[in-house]
Amino acid sequence: TDYRKWDNVRYSISLYAEGDREVSLEEVVELADAVATLEGIASGYGTMGYGAQIVVEADNSDAAVDVALEKFAAAVATTSLPGWPVVKAESVSEDDDYAELEDQIP
After folding, report:
1. What are phi and psi of 54, to 5 degrees?
2. Which of 14, 34, 54, 87 is most exposed, with the fewest beta carbons within 10 Å of its own?
3. Given this model, what pLDDT does residue 69 score?
4. Residue 4's pLDDT band (boundaries 50, 70, 90)?
5. pLDDT per residue over 59-98, tens digit each?
6. Burial tier of 21 (Cβ tally within 10 Å: 0-12, 13-18, 19+)
7. Alpha carbon of residue 47 to chain centroid
8. Where are the alpha helices (DSSP H) in 7-83?
């Protein structure tokens, strides 16, 4: 079943940047504030990196990751976090989520 009502699909993109020092709670809170407008959440407190899960719209998964990388970099630039390289990016489309739910219906 196709649940899309428009050309673009909503994707939830998880991104993780890795660096050379531990990330503080204050820095994660800054990142959470920066990604809030992207329906985002932030993570990384006490680890050697930081990440976020954000929502973007795009035609396909690859395009969604590209858009998310740009938005993530812009969000990070508004914080005191260093601009570490993104080492992981994963995408899940809204359609994938719906298909998974359909599979669970008896």
Report:
1. -130, 165
2. 87
3. 98
4. very low
5. 999 999 999 999 999 999 999 999 999 999 999 998 765 5
6. exposed
7. 18
8. 25-35, 61-77
Query: Is the Cβ–Cβ distance between 97 and 4 less than 8 Å?
Result: no
- 3-state helix, strand, coil split of the chain in percent (to 5) is 40, 30, 30
Best CA proximity match to 23, nearest among 73, 84, 74: 84
How far is Cα 30 from Cα 105, in angstroms, rounded to an integer?
40
Q: Which residues pair with 52 in a beta bridge?
A: 15, 42
Cβ-based neighbours of 69, under 8 Å, separated by 6 or more: 15, 86, 89
- Whether the Cβ atoms of residue 30 and residue 103 lie closer than 8 Å to each other: no
Residue 76 DSSP symbol:
H
Residue owning tokens 């390289």: 85
Residue 16: its pLDDT value, please? 98
